[in-house]
Design a protein that fits this description.
Structural class: mainly alpha
Distance between the termini: 11 Å
Shape: elongated
Number of strands: 0
Strand content: under 5%
Oligomer: single chain
């Protein structure tokens, strides 16, 4: 239960994915679609953490 409410591991994983996507895009992809997708996932996770985590904390 504690792992499900802890968003730090997910944000760290998305940061690593973002760096890998940037490195891949700089070499192979001319449009940067992987970087944009990783950035969008990171923004979604940060929004979930910002808006939903207080509700989970209050529910516990």
């Amino acid at each position: 239960m504690n792992l499900a409410l802890n968003f730090y591991w997910l944000t760290n994983l998305l940061a690593i994915i973002f760096v890998v996507a940037c490195l891949y895009d700089s070499r192979y992809d001319e449009y940067g679609t992987l970087t944009l997708a990783a950035a969008a996932m990171s923004l979604v996770v940060m929004a979930i953490e910002l808006f939903l985590k207080p509700a989970f904390d209050m529910a516990l």
